[in-house]
Amino acid sequence: MGLLYLGTPLAWDDAKKYADHVRTHGITQFLHIWDRVKDKNGDELLWGDEIEYMVVSFDNEEKNAKLSLRQTEILAKLSAIVNDISSDHDNSIAVPTFHPEYGRYMLESTPGSPYTGYISDLLSVEKNMRYRRSLARKHLKPNEIPLTFTSFPRLGAPGQFTEPYHNPADAVSSHSLFLPEEITNPHARFPTLTANIRRRRGSKVAINLPIFFDEETPKPFIDPTIPWDRSIYSEDPEAKNGAALPDHIYLDAMGFGMGCCCLQLTFQACNVNDARRLYDGLIPIGPILLALTAASPVWRGYLADVDCRWNVIAGSVDDRTEEERGSKPLKHDRFVIPKSRYDSVDLYISEDWMNRPEYNDNPLPIDEGIYDRLRKHGLDDLLSKHIAHLFIRDPLVVFSETIDQDDETSSDHFENIQSTNWQTLRFKPPPPNSTIGWRVEFRSMEVQMTDFENAAFSVFVVLLSRAILSFNLNFYIPISKVDVNMARAQERDAAQSGKFYFRKDVFTNPSPYSSGSSSPVDGVPRPKEKKLRNCFPPVPAPLNGHHKGPVEDEYEEMTMDEIMNGKSDRFPGLLGLVEAYVDTLDVEAEDLAKIRSYLNLVRDRSNGTLLTAATWIRNFVRSHPAYAKNSVVSQEINYDLLVAVDEIERGARSASDLLPKDYTGGNKDQGSI
Ligand code: ADP
Ligand code: MG
Ligand code: MG
Ligand code: MG
């Protein structure tokens, strides 16, 4: 979440008058940044995670687990505590910080300062995450627990799912049939975003997740819990007029998506070209890690036939008009736009020779005026297209106090559009007036129930990012195939039963791949490195000239096990690549064991030894004595599930199908900074 301004947000009819103003000045602001930092070079690896929590309030008498809406109070308290801890320590200790998020029951935490490339930092990630969790936990009410759980199973279900109760009839921003106004962070930005998405779109958002048909689920499934005949808001009849599909779980508000929790990572690159290379390298990884971290099979009290949050969030902020969605001919709007502003990346942006034009095969509406302006300023085709594609969107929240800005020192208008394009990867230019470099954010992962898992996936991705850069790995496949993978990643049990398009030969040069202490290119031994490096020479030109066979021959469908653990000698699997990279590091035996324990978790999830969180949750529900085999996740099942999640996290309950046997829970290890 970007900075939160205090100010007067404009309703959509007023905000839209400033759309061109925001875009024009946003581009001016970007160009000032570009001129200042396009040649910035030599930045070290800095990286950090963002972890989101939902605060759950347990009523042990009624056996109900509800979302606690005390975000404002909790954040005020945590921020005072963080300040106290900081003043008790010398400056060398950076105390983690907590941030607001969309849901009024959510918290986000980040390390107090980014991690560096030192191995010791790699090993501090889990401790840091655990410290954050125990800090939050200690300062909540005794019956409140911060859970890292992707989607709250009974959000929007009948009965009481928030503490305190609020009636959905009061949902003046979303007009939802299911979620009260109070689900949303009260800061003006969030209700305004919610209302302006609805107003711009011309209807409520409409998400339909296929129901998981169990033995007793009625067929067809017509959801009896939808208030079909409510008539409070003008959009109320949408459900019965076709927005709510049979055999689906219907969701009608931003909160269903933006109220989910995820795990994100941001990496600083050496320079803009490396950032572009890393961005591209991680694009095909987005869906793979979405499937591996799948953690959200229950929605509005029902088991769904999907395991992930992604399409729910995409739909929950889909502000496109009917014309933009292509369901009416273009008359008032400028573009037909194939995707929501929350969706997968549409364009590879690296200028390396590896990036063949054929890979950018998605339709790409761009703002031609902005594209021309960027080109005239000297930017290359791909980066100009990237920005001109993001800038087809309107700004959704405009504050009357900040319409006029100093474009040399501010990036607010740029960030207004940039930070409301929520894609699997985000290419983050340096902010003005800072020493921060070019960064890439990896955004697809679902948050895991324990910090051991969250650290494991974070460590895996940071090591993979190094392998991509240091071995010049080539993961390119047509971006339309990455989108096919995104859809497949969300299907039930994708990590076990799905197949994904992946590149067969990931090495840039035909020389045999070698690992260990010798260079993969020339086989000459090189000293092991003590630190994760950030700056690498440009990708060498191909030894045999540009071999340009048909793109279709470069990739094939693979199982998750093959993608992660290897298929042939040209593809050792992502874990094989990471292991080879780890071999180039000078790591103490004990530290190596810890790193291996993280990689083992990722491996066990990819080969089926351990379940994904989604499968574990689904199994829990389906084997609960109160489960009527009809897809319904009742208040009682939800309560028992979330109690179990907390117990597992603390180590008070074992889950040997989900976690390694030697997992030590939060009770034993509260982390440190
Ligand atoms: P967002 O805009 O995605 O919400 P946040 O500020 O919440 O961003 O989180 C950004 C993450 O990036 C944090 O983990 C932070 O530690 C990390 N970070 C901060 N500075 C840098 C940097 N220069 N390079 C890379 N990561 C950084
Ligand atoms: Mg967040
Ligand atoms: Mg954040
Ligand atoms: Mg982020």
Automatic annotation (TrEMBL):
Gene3D superfamilies: 1.10.8.960, 3.30.590.50. It is an enzyme of class 6 (ligase). Its EC number is 6.3.2.2. One of its GO terms (biological process) is glutathione biosynthetic process. InterPro entries: GCS (IPR004308), Gln_synth/guanido_kin_cat_dom (IPR014746). It catalyses: L-cysteine + L-glutamate + ATP = gamma-L-glutamyl-L-cysteine + ADP + phosphate + H(+). Pathway: Sulfur metabolism; glutathione biosynthesis; glutathione from L-cysteine and L-glutamate: step 1/2. GO terms for cellular component: glutamate-cysteine ligase complex. It comes from the Eukaryota. Residues 511-524 have a biased composition (Low complexity). One of its GO terms (molecular function) is glutamate-cysteine ligase activity. It holds the Pfam family GCS. Residues 511-530 are annotated as: Disordered. Keywords: ATP-binding, Glutathione biosynthesis, Ligase, Nucleotide-binding. Belongs to the glutamate--cysteine ligase type 3 family. This is Glutamate--cysteine ligase. It comes from Dendrothele bispora (strain CBS 962.96).
